[in-house]
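Q: Here's a chain of 259 amino acids. Please give me its 3D structure as tokens.
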Amino acid sequence: MEKIGDIEIRVVGKLGNQSLSPDNYDIKHIATILQNVEDLLYPNNKKDRPIITYDIQEGSVRHLFKTTIQTVIGFSAVLGQVQANESIDFLELKTARAIENIQNLSRQKNYEFQIKTSLKDDYELTINASTKYFRTENIWVEAEFYFYGILKDAGGKSKANIHLDTQDYGYLSIETGEEFLKDREENLLYKKLGVRASGKQNIETGEIDTKSLSLLELINYHPKFDSDYLNSLIKKAKKSWNNINPDEWLLNLRGGYEA
């Protein structure tokens, strides 16, 4: 049986003249915490993540989460680095965005969030109205991307988009605009397609903000093995190597290191 550890998010503040408690803490604020905890702990591979259990207790308002001790150890290290750097720019996008959401709630309601784990000698990260845990905007720039996959869904009530199931990036939602979908005569669903899209990318890590993607172009994508084309490339390469002794070439290449 896996060892379990605790993560606590304590909320301190007032509702009018009353101190916060589970009896007066609104359900929409509970939902905000629950919606962001998964991204705090498991920004990737959510399908295979361990179970997270939840409880709410007195002490102002204490949100208590239980999960594997390995996750708690990793999260404790994250808290320490955020506290030491006073920055979230180094975090994975989903984790950074989750902390931003808590920071925004703190400023809106003048609440203080005290985040810690059950480990001894642990770090406690405090987020309140005076802290500034926001991503630095100038490290995110507009860029163009190419994605390939199967189009699984299209439409949307408030925002028109397509959903592309890709091998490299998972399930992507890409904004299209209503006019684009309205003007398509052919059925696009369950077809293999390439997509040229614009969005934001972190210039330091290369990470893509998948929530910022907008469609630029659909590309017909028919991957197939072309043996004639491959053989022509091999034939061209052989000509280039006709007068080269591979052993001597490798010896010269390694010379700087073996010396």
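Q: Can you summarize the key feature?
A: Residues 69-85 form the longest helix (17 residues).
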